[in-house]
Every structure is written in structure tokens, then in C-alpha cells.
Amino acid sequence: MTNNPPSAQIKPGEYGFPLKLKARYDNFIGGEWVAPADGEYYQNLTPVTGQLLCEVASSGKRDIDLALDAAHKVKDKWAHTSVQDRAAILFKIADRMEQNLELLATAETWDNGKTHSRNQCCRRAAGD
């Protein structure tokens, strides 16, 4: 038996917290992390303790337009990518998610409050 407190009593950022999170997350647009155009962030509170988990970009119309512009720049290239190559890319993403399943499930538990087992997904569920 250890003297460690239950993880629900450990605040985000403290020693023993099950995740190593950045204090702030920006938008991922065009392959780069980009601060929100208006510079606004919202506080992402964990329902597990009510504590601040991290800050997340509060995106507005300008951010959406930037994301759409970036997507439009690569849509033709993606459309001309063979089905086999697209499938290989998606399977590689699925493999990476499975390799990090425990981390992702823990992050989702602290982010949305669902049970850890409920947050453990499998490759098949992504296709449903």
C-alpha cells in the first residue's frame, strides 16, 4: 500500500498527476500550431475535480477561415492520392492511436469525466 493520494485529489500540473499537459493549446492549422486570431482562450476545467486542466484556443470565424484555406490548398493533392495510400495513412494514424491508447483514454477521462474503460476505444469503433 502506498501513501499516494487518489489521482482525483491530485490537481493538474502537480506531481503524481497522470498526464503531462501543456498549460495552453493552440489551433493546429496547415501542419502548424497557430495561436487563435483573436488571442482568446477558454479554460478547460476537468469535471473530475473542477480544477483547470489547461487553456484551449477559443476559435472564431478568422480561425475557421484559416483552417478552411489550409484544407483547400491540399484537397486536390489528397483527392489524387490513391485509395491504397490514403488507407495506409489512416491505418498509420490508427496504429499510433493504439500505441497511445492508455494515454489517450486517461486524457479523455480527465477531459470529459467518462470512465476510463469507456474511453478506451478500438480501431473498429473509429470506422462505425
TrEMBL record:
* One MF annotation (Gene Ontology) recorded for this entry: oxidoreductase activity
Q: What is its EC number?
A: 1.2.1.-
Which InterPro entries does the annotation name?
Answer: Ald_DH/histidinol_DH, Ald_DH_N, Aldehyde_DH_dom
Q: Residues in domain Aldehyde dehydrogenase?
A: 33-117
Q: Which UniProt keywords apply?
A: Oxidoreductase
The UniProt record lists the keyword Transcription regulation: no
Q: Which Pfam families match?
A: Aldedh (PF00171)
Domain of life, per the record?
Bacteria
Name by which UniProt lists this protein: Lactaldehyde dehydrogenase
